[in-house]
């Protein structure tokens, strides 16, 4: 089961409603929180994810950068310019 948990003190269904089953599961069963947007799932900062992005990252067990974000990360880490396909300096 998955649900959204707000990082701020905004009102969510679990705060506004009585949820004894969810409360018991949360207290007694293992659980984890994961991010579903932005760089944490390979998207540009603050961009909301979707089911495809979620499935790709969960299935891979790591961050799978989407095309635009991958380019941004490679440029920032300076690995983009080491790509042999792009290194044609007069050849």
From TrEMBL:
Highest taxon of source: Bacteria
SUPFAM superfamilies per UniProt: Alkaline phosphatase-like (SSF53649)
BP GO terms, sorted: glucose catabolic process
Enzyme Commission numbers on file: 5.4.2.-
Domain Metalloenzyme: 4-62
Top class in the EC scheme: isomerase
Matches recorded under InterPro entries: Alkaline_phosphatase_core_sf (IPR017850), Metalloenzyme (IPR006124), Pgm_bpd_ind (IPR005995)
Alphabetical keyword list: Isomerase
Annotated Gene Ontology cellular component terms: cytosol
Keyword Transferase: no
GO MF, any single term: manganese ion binding
Protein name: Phosphoglyceromutase
Organism: Klebsiella pneumoniae subsp. ozaenae
Name of the gene encoding the protein in the UniProt record: yibO_4
């Amino acid at each position: 089961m998955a649900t959204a948990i707000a990082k701020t003190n905004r009102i969510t269904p679990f705060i506004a409603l009585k949820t004894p089953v969810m409360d018991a599961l949360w207290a007694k069963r293992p659980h984890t929180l994961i991010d579903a947007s932005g760089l944490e799932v390979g998207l540009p900062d603050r961009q909301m994810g979707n089911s495809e992005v979620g499935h790709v990252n969960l299935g891979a067990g790591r961050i799978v950068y989407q095309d635009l974000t991958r380019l941004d990360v490679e440029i920032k880490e300076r690995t983009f310019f080491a790509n042999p396909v792009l290194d044609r300096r007069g050849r």
